[in-house]
Structures are given as structure tokens and as C-alpha cells.
Amino acid sequence: MRIATIVAVVPIKALDAAKTRLGAVLDAGDRADLTLWLAGRVVTAISASGVVERTVVVSPDTSVLHWASGRGLAAIRQRDGDLNAGIALGRDWALDAGAGALLVALGDLPLLTPEDVRAMAGQARAASGTEHGSAGGVADVVGVVIVAPDRAGTGTNMLLVAPPDALAPAFGPGSRARHDALACAARLTLAVYSAPGTAFDVDRPADLDELRSRRLWSPRSAPVLGGTNGARGTNGAHSMNGTVRPASEIGVGTPGGTLDGRDP
Questions:
Q1: Alpha-carbon dihedral of residues 254, 255, 261, 264, nearest 10 degrees?
Q2: pLDDT tens for each residue of 10-53
Q3: Alpha-helical segments (H) within 192-261
């Protein structure tokens, strides 16, 4: 098989339902800001990787879709269903766009780098035989799955599947084992990618502490390192010690995307 075009899907919850496990330490406005800031980091890394043709954001939230389309990303409104249903919408869009592989990236990976995305794509192409001089790849490779687990090793933060419909998404608690089992049952070539950029997600107050210790993000309602308050900047950015993070660091995606016609 041959992996040519890669399309990325980034699912994002409705802002009023996002990061509710942080409700004890962040108010609703800060959780919404954090959600978009995290997503901006993810789509920026994907775009800068140079190996992803298009990126599509899937969300039930109209404001998220406008945020995405304003950054040149394709956007699909999810009208019902869970996380996996949203990813399936993105997968179908990718298939219609002629994708040879689907990269699913959860939207809360602040340390994700372009190198991580390139490495996952390289693993997939190596496993498929695309990088070994065969125009058609290795004939007996049915499909390829690259799993990037979370820090606990039990969840899945990123997933690369080629072809895009070779594996049904099975995200949620314990998804690493489910994805492994589904790949084995379908006789797909399975590999694991592990790196800080793909493993660190933001779900708990301790994760916020790590962001603050790295001087990456701080809520506007709490003091940051150095004794000044974080303030909302443009495009969901926050200031650190009074300096707004550049917009280029938080939310520029692949140009040329359009708001899906299913969105009002």
C-alpha cells in the first residue's frame, strides 16, 4: 500500500462543556480560553509539520467552528454523538477529500511539535513500505496504525490510520488497549509512537501547574510566575508577565479550509 495524502482531524468539545474536570480551579471563561489555546498549539504543530495536506476541526460549537475557519482550517459541525462519532465525521470528510491516511489529534496537547507529526508520518510510511523504493508500497500490508499513548500508557492522544477507514476510532478511557486489539483483529501493521509532545495532555489541576511552571499558560483570574496576572490576548492567547504570546504560536492552521456546508 502507499500513503500519500494525510488529512488531520482535531475534535473539540463545545466550549461550555470542555475541561469540566478543571472546574474547581478555572472559571468557565478561563476553561474556554484554555481549550482554544490548546487547540491552537495542536493545529499549529500539524500545519508546521509539512506532511499534512489538510486539517479539519470537528465540533458541536459554532464559535469553535468560526475560530477554526478563521485560521484557514476546514470545519465540520457535529450535531450529535460522542467523541468517536465526531472523529468519524472527520474521517468521512478525509475520505471524500482523497486522503490516504488519517491523523487524529486530540486538541489538548500543548507540547506537540511539528517533529512529532513528521515522526508519526514517517513511521507509517516506513511500515507501509512507501519509503523503501516501491511506488505501491508493500503488497501484503493491509493497513497501518500508529498509536501515540498518553502518559499513563492507557489512553490514546493521537492516532494515525492508513487507509483512513482501516480502523474505527475507539477513543475514551482505556482506548490504547482497544486500538491495539482492533488493529490486531484487522491484521493491520501496528506501531507505537511515544514522546513528551504526544503524551502530555491537560486534564487535571496538576497539568495546569505544569503549564505554569513551563511559563506557557496561566488563567487570567490567577497570578502567574513573577507576580503579575495573566490576561487574555488575541486569538485566545494569554499574557505572561504582561507580554501577550504571539498569535503565530497559538492558532494558525493549514490555509485554504472552508466552513463545512452543514454549519449554519
A1: 90
A2: 999 999 999 999 999 999 999 999 999 999 999 999 999 999 99
A3: 196-199, 205-213
Residue with cell 484487522: 186
Instruction: Please report, for the chain, the start and end positions of each structural domain, with discontinuous segments joined by +.
Output: 6-241
- Return d(Cα 206, Cα 56) in angstroms, integer: 30
CA distance 60 to 48: 26
Look at the block and give the residue holding cell 496561566: 218
Q: Which of 157, 58, 64, 144 is nearest to 100 (CA)?
A: 144
In this structure, the strands spanning 156-162 and 101-105 are antiparallel
Cell numbers standing for residue 150: 498518553
The superfamily (CATH) of domain 6-241 is Spore Coat Polysaccharide Biosynthesis Protein SpsA; Chain A (3.90.550.10)
φ/ψ of residue 74, rounded to 5:
-70, 150
